Amino acid sequence: MKLDIIISADNINEKYLENKIVVVIDMLRATSVITTALNNGCNKVVPFLTVEEAFDYRKNNVEPCLLGGERRALKIEGFDFSNSPLEYTSDKVKNKIVVITTTNGTRAIQGASKANRIFIGSMLNAKAVTEALKTLDKDVVFVNAGTYGEFSMDDFICAGYMISLLSTNKENALSDIAFTAKYIYENNKDIVSFIKNARHFSVLKSLQLEEDLTYCTKKDIISIVPEFKDGEIKIASF
């Protein structure tokens, strides 16, 4: 399979993604939140670009909805949750709809809507995602959410980890950027030591969100693969 990376939501070319499998990565923290919420029993996650859309969805929905997300890493006024995956516990989200809007992650998800299939990836479920990709055996583009439209070290090394997993005992056609991500991961397997210099890591640390950072950098603790389809994210079936 051919493997490639898009470095931020601002760099998405919708035409390029047509007929491809996409994995959206925003490990700090949107895709970690989505994966955690679904793993803890929420019915689905519905991503929106704007705060207003999120409020409107809850207002017009008869099912119980919880609002989560952030702007500039901070909780949105009137929302139930911030963008901390640790808040989305089973006792709060089970059998409910989680509506989410974030600065970078939900933009990347919506921007990838022309792809054939869109999966949600993070360090937490990287192995599960790559096992699914091996089964599908089609060209894959890893769409990194980035930070405010710019390259993000954390999303990049997460993509590198998945590319490394996909390359075990298999020859794939890697773009230059995919090869670089794989190389960086394989030479920096201690994720925190690498991404501690990332701008977004520093922002979260300054907000005393070290527990989020510790959680989001854990590898392969969740075995589900979320999929974005028809405006909703649910656990994928294969």
Automatic annotation (TrEMBL):
Question: Looking at the keywords, is ATP-binding present?
Answer: no
Chemical reaction(s) catalysed: (2R)-O-phospho-3-sulfolactate + H2O = (2R)-3-sulfolactate + phosphate
Task: Keywords in alphabetical order, please.
Answer: Hydrolase, Magnesium
List, separated by semicolons, the cofactors it needs.
Answer: Mg(2+)
Q: Which InterPro entries does the record cross-reference, listed alphabetically?
A: ComB-like, ComB-like_sf
Q: Which domain of life is it from?
A: Bacteria
- The answer to whether the entry has keyword Magnesium is yes
The protein's GO terms of the molecular function aspect are: 2-phosphosulfolactate phosphatase activity; magnesium ion binding; sulfopyruvate decarboxylase activity
- SUPFAM superfamilies in the record, alphabetically? ComB-like
Give one Pfam family. 2-ph_phosp
E.C. number(s) listed in UniProt: 3.1.3.71
**Which family does the entry's similarity section mention?**
Belongs to the ComB family.
Q: Which HAMAP family match?
A: ComB
UniProt protein name: Probable 2-phosphosulfolactate phosphatase
Q: Which organism is it from?
A: Clostridium amylolyticum
